[in-house]
């Protein structure tokens, strides 16, 4: 047996006990006649002591030669420490070692195994197994486990059944690109890895499973942006015989349970906001409502003066930055530079200082008097001491730009508090969105989403106005879940595919099995999927999903630790009936 | 809201309650003036009643036109039934319907949605969503969910952390064939789908995770035998600072917990048997010990007579078939034909009838007298009324043949009771096995398995004799789990790769990251993996894993429901830099 206790376990209650411990050498302090070693494992650190008086010389010598990250096993007696450390559970004791075994030596690690390491991102990815030894990374993974256990137990208690759907499925051109898997037994044919178990969970509803969930890996072969992974994990859920209200209530319950279990917080009923309202008030369909700074639309009060920039704009809109009047002219210029960066793309910014004396000073004083500016302040909710930032232009663009500014300033002002949780349902999404590239409408959620009752007719006359039975759960400015009530009859589904540009043959070839299934008694059904990686990061009060994934890939989709992907043997390619045909 | 209650919920306590129910039409009995409908959902069946007295004519007409598997919603009052059904939880009541809505019509299903269906295997696979509506299939999937929840909660309570390892990894030629995934972003390169998370779980141990588990899909591109799936699920576990004893105790605990939770049985300590002993006593490394019929080796007592078949054989071995003397000559001949089939491959069988009067009658009376046969009976444990079946020949072959016969006869005799559970550890597996095809030794478990202490030296002198720190958990004649204590130092691992025929470059290219990791302080570690599909089937008292998989593939690796795999667009192939090169 390698240990009788872990390194986080022994306290003053165990004094005089003979124990065996194993772990990694965290730190060595060698005073010659005394050597202290901090022994680490997942559970904590226990201090070992070797001293000339009681330790044989031979063992003193071996202890002196221990290096950082050596794996050792010791037997010894729990004794009271001279200088106690009240900040550690094991801080009152140490182990007087009577037996020392080196289980494995260690090269000097390429970065320090400390909470704050000196290792850069690349090095830590290459030696991820060493990075995982660091408390913050390991704690993130344990936190992820706790969240998934809480999810599973909650849903299971509510009669949801976790069903494993297949990973080797069929490629469909809808949505992002599929990863594909050549079949050797069916030469020239390919499986695809699922972008989500969408059709399978719908078939489970047709199959009477009633309540399904699955925590499941999904795959998207997209050009990776920062903090996107080619493989990611979903909490995938579906229910039969439900309306939108049932889904919102059920998963509000789940989210409330997680917030309670993990943070001990119990938010009230989650607010609901239509997509349209979210766009108007926050310029964003996943608004962070932990703070205000809501949009004030100024068209009515700022247009029809002599300021042509505003007059020609589709939308003039501003926000009040709390205590922003403190900013120097230079700081405001930097802000303007910030929103003019290509990533944001604003052409300029008008600002109004709200002075403590109630007067205003704006960058457009030539065109607007104090009375005008007072109305702007009213519309944006600005108080004395604030700064009003105003953007103008194309409505969609300008909302996105002002939303980015709002988030950036809130971050700088410390308004995005990581220990505060503000959930929100965004509902009534449009069914379709216009795609400039293909010059046609695409399904905003996916082609299985049902339109709101009675709106199917609008499809021909005013497609952009059709609202969907679709909803997102937003937490602290992040979409953590999204779903919809599905179409459940063949006719509507066929019409939807037709509208989205599928020929009847394509629709049949790709989704025939689903439309067939709808003919054999499909119940009304709907569901939701949560992005687990992001959910865990946000619940953990952090932003980067990579920090909550054991073995993440880099932005080129590579695992730099194992060096994958990699070339394949010609023999393997031959077996698959494939040849490389590189560009 | 589609329902106030499910169809398994209402009882006599609810009489006079107004309720809304939804579900599928299971059955209709139309007496003209009264129509009864059985309404089904996952939770049960509730009887609906429409009758001329209280139901408007229009609704009677619509009820009369309902078909099997129509999806309907009804509102009505719970009333007492005239003819009660004590076998159903809802058997005392029925619903007098006041409102009927048809939510979805249904074509006549291609097979009956009943516990005993008239649908053949192929049809049920194609319409799997209808098969899942049948109670036995749905209950299997719910059973699987319960088993996985029990596993997760048990392991989590024992400080195991479920960590998700990646699915897009690197192809390695060891073991079975990998499924590969071409990378678009890294053209000409491929990921592989994991055959198991073996190296990642070992890296988690190097990373100090201490106790890891994961219920995870794994992939093997093998020519499929009956009841093998290209994707299958493992309960994958690993622990640091453990010896074999720790692993056996931990997972004996898990198995005991499952048997207790699911079947209320509490077997004693699991017996342990060496591989050698299992082969000698049962001819099999996964013996079913629910019944006896142990092997009796007869070389010493049956050779050196005039029967040359035995004299020239490496092994002469028999089993006693309980009450087998009842078999007619014809039945025994059929048994001989059975073991001569190519799948079994025996050349013949000698048998001895053990008569009730204590005498023996054998097929080799010319060579053996009553005294000889009495010694055979003693060696095989045969009693009066039994039949002794004796095979001879090459030791490995003959053990396999007699083991097959033992299992077949036990099945026919009803000795393999599905409600009886006899777990067993098989230990001390050989490290290596000889491969006739490649004319060299292969790792019996995998190349990361450690030899027993002090046996590494034997590798050169007597490789076949080296025992491994490897163990299997056997339940009712099935291997449900297997694992080993791993190598955890670079030198030994490099030596093992060398011995298994990897060049140093190959070893470095494929497993360099693991050997690098071993240099930075790898703890002693080991683990086990359970085949979940099989485990669930056996715990469910059944044999076929396919019955416990929601969407299984057929023996050609095809999903006949969605029709995958399928050809790929040329455009998709171009993006991947691939061309078909079919044989």
Describe this structure as you would to a colleague:
The structure is a homodimer of 583-residue chains. The first copy, chain A, has three domains: 12-104, OB fold (Dihydrolipoamide Acetyltransferase, E2P) (Beta Barrel); 139-271 and 424-548, BirA Bifunctional Protein, domain 2 (2-Layer Sandwich); 291-416, Gyrase A, domain 2. Chain A has 17 helices and 23 strands. The first copy, chain A, has helices at residues 57-64, 121-126, 128-131, 135-157, 198-206, 244-263, 275-282, 299-302, 308-311, 329-340, 370-380, 395-412, 458-461, 490-499, 504-518, 532-539, 570-576; strands at residues 18-30, 34-41, 44-51, 71-80, 93-104, 161-162, 180-182, 190-192, 211-219, 231-240, 272-274, 296-297, 315-321, 350-354, 360-362, 387-393, 423-427, 432-435, 440-443, 470-475, 478-485, 525-531, 578-580. In chain A, the strands form five sheets. The first copy, chain A, has an eight-stranded mixed beta sheet, sandwiched between helices. A five-stranded mixed β-barrel of chain A has the order 1-2-3-5-4. At the A-B interface, strand 1, helix 3, helix 4, strand 6 and strand 7 of A face strand 1, helix 3, helix 4, strand 6 and strand 7 of B.
Using DSSP, what is the number of strands of chain A?
A: 23
User: How would you sum up the major sheet of chain A?
Assistant: 8 strands, mixed
Q: What Rg of chain A is obtained from the alpha carbons, in whole angstroms?
A: 30 Å
Task: List the chains of the largest interface with their residue counts.
Answer: A-B, 127 and 126 residues
CATH topology of the largest domain in chain A: BirA Bifunctional Protein, domain 2
- Overall 3D form of chain A: globular
Question: CATH superfamily of the largest domain in chain A, called what?
Answer: Bira Bifunctional Protein, Domain 2
Strand content of chain A: 15-25%
Mean of all residue-level pLDDT scores of chain A: 95
| Named CATH architecture of the largest domain in chain A | 2-Layer Sandwich
- CATH top-level class of the largest domain in chain A: Alpha Beta
Oligomer: homodimer
Q: Helix content range of the residues of chain A, please?
A: 25-40%
Number of domains of chain A: 3
The span between the termini of chain A is 58 Å
Structural class from helices and strands of chain A? alpha+beta
Uncertain runs of chain A: none
**Count the helices of chain A. How many?**
17
Strand order of the largest sheet of chain A: 6-9-10-22-21-20-17-11
């Amino acid at each position: 047996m390698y240990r009788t206790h872990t390194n986080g376990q022994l306290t003053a209650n165990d004094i005089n006990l003979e124990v065996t411990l194993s772990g990694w050498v965290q730190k060595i302090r060698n005073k010659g006649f005394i050597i202290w070693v901090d022994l680490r494992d997942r559970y904590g650190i226990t201090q070992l002591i070797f001293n000339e008086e009681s330790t044989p010389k031979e063992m003193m010598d071996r202890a002196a030669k221990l290096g950082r990250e050596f794996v050792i096993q010791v037997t010894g007696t729990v004794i009271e420490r001279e200088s106690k450390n009240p900040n550690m559970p094991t801080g009152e004791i140490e182990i007087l070692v009577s037996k020392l075994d080196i289980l494995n030596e260690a090269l000097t690690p390429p970065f320090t195994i400390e909470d704050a390491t000196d290792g850069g991102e690349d090095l830590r990815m290459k030696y991820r197994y060493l990075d995982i030894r660091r408390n913050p990374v390991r704690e993130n993974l344990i936190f992820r486990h706790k969240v998934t256990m809480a999810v599973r137990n909650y849903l299971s208690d509510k009669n949801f059944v976790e069903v494993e759907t297949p990973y080797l499925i069929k490629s469909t051109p809808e949505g992002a690109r599929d990863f594909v898997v050549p079949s050797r037994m069916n030469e020239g044919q390919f499986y695809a890895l699922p972008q989500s178990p969408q059709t399978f969970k719908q078939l489970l509803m047709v199959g009477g499973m009633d309540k399904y969930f699955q925590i499941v890996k999904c795959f998207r072969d997209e050009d990776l942006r920062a903090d996107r992974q080619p493989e990611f994990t979903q909490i995938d859920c579906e229910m039969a015989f439900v309306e939108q209200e049932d889904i919102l209530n059920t998963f509000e319950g789940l989210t409330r349970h997680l917030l309670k279990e993990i943070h001990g917080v119990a938010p009230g009923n989650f607010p609901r906001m239509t997509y349209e309202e979210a766009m108007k008030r926050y310029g964003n369909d996943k608004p962070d409502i932990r703070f205000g700074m809501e949009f004030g639309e100024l068209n009515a009060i700022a247009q029809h003066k002599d300021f042509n920039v505003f007059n020609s704009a589709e939308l003039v809109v501003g926000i009040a930055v709390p205590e922003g009047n403190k900013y120097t002219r230079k700081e405001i210029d930097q802000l303007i530079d910030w929103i003019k960066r290509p990533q944001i793309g604003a052409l300029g910014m008008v600002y109004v200082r709200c002075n403590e004396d109630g007067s205003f000073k704006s960058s457009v004083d030539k065109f607007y008097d104090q009375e005008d500016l007072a109305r702007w302040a009213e519309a944006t909710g600005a108080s004395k001491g604030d700064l009003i930032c105003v953007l103008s232009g194309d409505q969609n663009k300008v909302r996105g730009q002002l939303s980015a500014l709002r988030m950036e300033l809130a971050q700088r002002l410390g308004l995005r508090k990581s220990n505060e949780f503000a959930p929100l349902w965004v509902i009534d999404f449009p069914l379709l969105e216009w795609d400039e590239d293909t010059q046609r409408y695409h399904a905003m959620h996916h082609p299985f989403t049902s339109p709101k009752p009675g709106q199917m007719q609008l499809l021909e006359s005013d497609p952009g106005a059709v609202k969907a039975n679709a909803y997102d759960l937003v937490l602290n400015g992040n979409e953590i879940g999204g779903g919809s009530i599905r179409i459940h009859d063949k006719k509507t589904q066929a019409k939807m595919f037709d509208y989205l540009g599928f020929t009847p043959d394509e629709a049949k070839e790709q989704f025939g099995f689903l439309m067939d299934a709808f003919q054999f008694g499909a119940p009304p059904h709907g569901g939701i999927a949560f992005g687990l990686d992001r959910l865990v990061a946000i619940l953990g009060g952090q932003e980067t999903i990579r920090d909550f994934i054991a073995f993440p890939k880099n932005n080129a989709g590579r695992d730099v630790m194992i060096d994958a992907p990699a070339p394949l043997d010609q023999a393997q390619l031959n077996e698959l009936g494939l040849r490389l045909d590189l560009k």
